[in-house]
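Lecture notes, structural biology module. Today: joint structure prediction for complexes of six components.
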Amino acid sequence: MNSNSITEELIGIGKTGAALTRKERDKQLRKADIMRAAERVFAQKGYHNAAMQDIAREAQYATGTVYLYFKDKEALYFSLLEEKIKGLNLVLKEATGHIADAEDRLRIFIHESLSYFQRNQDFFKIFFSERTKGQLVKDAKFSKSPIMAQNKELVLKIIRSGQEQKVVRNDFEAAQISDILGSIFMNVVFDLFKDAPRDESKLKEMSGFILDIFLNGAGKKR
Amino acid sequence: MNSNSITEELIGIGKTGAALTRKERDKQLRKADIMRAAERVFAQKGYHNAAMQDIAREAQYATGTVYLYFKDKEALYFSLLEEKIKGLNLVLKEATGHIADAEDRLRIFIHESLSYFQRNQDFFKIFFSERTKGQLVKDAKFSKSPIMAQNKELVLKIIRSGQEQKVVRNDFEAAQISDILGSIFMNVVFDLFKDAPRDESKLKEMSGFILDIFLNGAGKKR
Amino acid sequence: MNSNSITEELIGIGKTGAALTRKERDKQLRKADIMRAAERVFAQKGYHNAAMQDIAREAQYATGTVYLYFKDKEALYFSLLEEKIKGLNLVLKEATGHIADAEDRLRIFIHESLSYFQRNQDFFKIFFSERTKGQLVKDAKFSKSPIMAQNKELVLKIIRSGQEQKVVRNDFEAAQISDILGSIFMNVVFDLFKDAPRDESKLKEMSGFILDIFLNGAGKKR
Amino acid sequence: MNSNSITEELIGIGKTGAALTRKERDKQLRKADIMRAAERVFAQKGYHNAAMQDIAREAQYATGTVYLYFKDKEALYFSLLEEKIKGLNLVLKEATGHIADAEDRLRIFIHESLSYFQRNQDFFKIFFSERTKGQLVKDAKFSKSPIMAQNKELVLKIIRSGQEQKVVRNDFEAAQISDILGSIFMNVVFDLFKDAPRDESKLKEMSGFILDIFLNGAGKKR
DNA sequence: CATGAATGAGTGTTCATTCAT
DNA sequence: GATGAATGAACACTCATTCAT
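The predicted structure, tokenised, for the full assembly:
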């Protein structure tokens, strides 16, 4: 498993300084334990086939304990999902925030995203394979969550600055374009999941490929 | 519901001539009945929440009867999936087979696919929202199925002929490029599902958009 | 256990003639099986401590089977309750219907009721000990059921005819009086449950006691 | 809620003089706190649906603390029940102790009881609706408790003195008669619970009704 | 072949009770 | 003593699958 990296940040070590009492921190730690376990179990069995007991056992807690920290199976799942996107947003902000050149930003954006998805592929696998068990209901709930909105905003900003710097076409709406980027991206990611985890150099290559195709298209320049 | 059109073909009326005995035909007919019912129920409830009994009732058969034609709930689902892709392949072959110009072919290909997905959106919705309930295992099983291979081959051919006619870049592998086309495509389709069904003119517009982006990219031409 | 007697009547043997198909009858038979089992289990463990599985096992069915016949644990319980009251109503109608003299009717009414409760004491024990687990909610639901209304009507009629025949005081409303009769009755019944089942002669004596007290009161006549 | 009045007496202020050490008194105080909380929670949710945690929270204690004072959920419930009956006994003794005339005593007895039940209706509601969740076992345990015996004795005395003063029939055993009084009483009480709380004048009216019926019966005097 | 009643393992969730701090 | 986090057994209910008719 390869996703403990954001845990700390989400728990609030460091940033918050002395903000949390020990009890609070313990609680967050335990919550994180369970989420980590849930991540593994969900990744292995998928949302529906993962029993709460499985998750509890994996986390080395009793069944009931999980419910001390999460109201619901669904709540647990959504916490996980939100955490992941939050983590992505964090990484992206940090990596792209200080870059001025739009094309560089795009390149970095793509590469960091790719890398993040790869690192968290266990989780994202299930996200893709069952966006909430069969009704898009909760999917809708999720796509309207503030964290998701924040993510959209991030991509949008990058595209917009690209348009301003005449790097990206402006005969289409930024939103439409960012959707396209998203889609190219997602399916490359999906592909990523099929094969064994790749090394850094491979990732860089793929990022380049995406950027090239995204900017120049697949059409032969005449 | 909007997808009975391919049923006949799949059942084998016409093409196969007198190949099937009456009994065989009856069997196929019943199989199709059930698949049609399953499609409706799956579309409404999603894979997991659709009970075999619901499907049986919808098909006006007894529960057990369904198991006479499909080994499993899963088998039923995969049959449905395969049938849909088969149908898409059929449509695409027919629509693009006789077109010589590569760009035209691409355009037609995109438009026909878009249209097919739209017509079958009830089904594809669940396909996207739960690719086989949570294990990619079976997804893998599916993506290696001959029908899927056939579909890949189809797209590949179009891209290759594009490359030959200097319409598509050839500094990347055809397979890679067709993946990208697929991804742009899929996410536009996914978007399609969110909104109300669109009319023909809207579809044409979207096809144009996809083709444009696909060929020219999102980069500003200097 | 001592309460299979009304089963037949409720199932509809005889009365309905050829009204029920075999399948229907089988179904009713099975339903009765389960109700009989539920009666025993409820009587032994009480409503809350009786697990559906216990009932199923007692009825020699699988857990799920019970749910084929009863929507709910609650539904099962209410069916039982209704059946019992229905049975009481039946007995009372039959026993008092043709009696003209009001005092005789009262006497018979009391005696038959007492006897019925005694015969079905296993069930009524739980009815008294947990009128629906803690909210009077369902109790309300029940007391408004048509069968219960019918029962009330029955008692009321007897009291009214008593008033008409100048056997019962008419300076109070019949409803109030029948409530009192009900209460004296119920608590004698409750007492009945504590001790071992009594013989017929004892029952007669008790009936006499109730009637005497009911009519003459506990006051010394001067 | 309307029942804190007896708390003090039960805690032992006054009567016992200096009998209790401070520690002991603290303990009793805490016990009373919890019982008060339990009363409220039970009244609102019923025995089964009241969670020990609810009670603890209501009492502003930790869950575990409750178990320091009561062995069991059941024990807590029975303590409550006993306390209530104890309170009733107290009230009755005080109100009837000095009355010489048997009919007056009866009247007072009925009225005070009615009034007590009304004041404590929140609690008694659940007592009636789930006499110990489904086993009469514990009910039996309770009805044999010394406090209950004391209560019985009280009623018995009143009836006996009635018999001596030729106000009550003596062709039946006092025990039997007091049972009857109890039953009439209980069901009037039960009725009381259904409707909104009544005012004092209404209570007096009802007491009169009970006394009349009890003494004179429902029979028409000829 | 078709039926649909029967099965019973499996699930999410609650809650009385314990016990380390 | 007090705490309240942890426990884990228990339970109502569902549903894919089977099989006697």
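Point to remember: Residues 27, 30, 56, 61-65, 68 of chain A lie near DNA strand F (CB under 10 Å from a C1').
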